[in-house]
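Translate structure to sequence.
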């Protein structure tokens, strides 16, 4: 958990769950796993268990104690829709986000099928943004599942971008984040993949955010795309779910 996050498209992180497991190629060099495993076996450290999944009920109400409004990335060290997280705990996280109306919460998942399964029973207030990761064309179908979610902002994280996103339908998408991979063994991004997404977003009126080119370190290649930084943020839209109306 961190206030003043170093992630360019958010301000703070909140981790009521830590730990995860790999589901697709974008997970291969997971920064969260690399960090957590450094501390495996260290007594009393928050990551004593490494990257094994762990629920932290004592962290649930942390955002309620933050008075200054923040943009908060939920579970930067996990995936809220991981199959091992009970629905009841996910519902508690959503209840906190509903009550902490002063903040904007960004939830990102690779578990698109479980997201679509659980979404009808969850509240979707205007301060909760929902996104899916799409790293190459094999996973562009995740956007179809995201479109079923009545979130005020639906977004795609194309990071790490590992190939062209041919066949990606951006209907109903409000924001797209793109970026290259960083760290040892990083897979290089082709500039044409990023510029194609940028051009599509501009043409379709979708906010576009280019996070980084990547490299051995996150900042190795800088952030400029076509001579400028792309830091666009989305505008929430009114969408209603049965759970929110009930």
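Result:
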């Amino acid at each position: 958990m961190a206030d003043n996050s170093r992630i360019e498209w958010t301000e703070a992180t909140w981790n009521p769950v830590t730990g995860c497991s790999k589901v697709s190629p974008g997970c291969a060099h997971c920064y969260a796993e690399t960090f957590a495993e450094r501390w495996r076996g260290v007594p009393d450290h928050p990551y004593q268990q490494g990257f094994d999944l762990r629920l932290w009920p004592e962290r649930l109400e942390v955002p309620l104690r933050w008075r200054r409004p923040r943009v908060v990335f939920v579970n930067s060290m996990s995936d809220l829709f991981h199959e091992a997280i009970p629905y009841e705990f996910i519902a508690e996280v959503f209840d906190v986000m509903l009550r902490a109306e002063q903040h904007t919460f960004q939830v990102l998942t690779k578990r698109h099928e479980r997201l679509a399964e659980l979404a009808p029973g969850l509240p979707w207030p205007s301060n909760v943004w929902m996104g899916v990761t799409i790293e190459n064309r094999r996973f562009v179908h995740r956007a179809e599942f995201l479109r079923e979610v009545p979130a005020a902002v639906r977004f795609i994280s194309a990071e790490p971008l590992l190939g062209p996103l041919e066949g990606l339908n951006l209907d109903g998408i409000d924001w797209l984040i793109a970026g290259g991979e960083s760290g040892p063994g990083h897979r290089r991004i082709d500039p044409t993949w990023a510029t194609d997404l940028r051009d599509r977003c501009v043409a379709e009126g979708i906010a576009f955010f280019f996070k980084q080119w990547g490299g051995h370190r996150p900042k190795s290649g800088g952030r400029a795309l076509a001579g400028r930084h792309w830091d666009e943020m989305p505008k929430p839209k009114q969408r209603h779910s049965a759970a929110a109306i009930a």
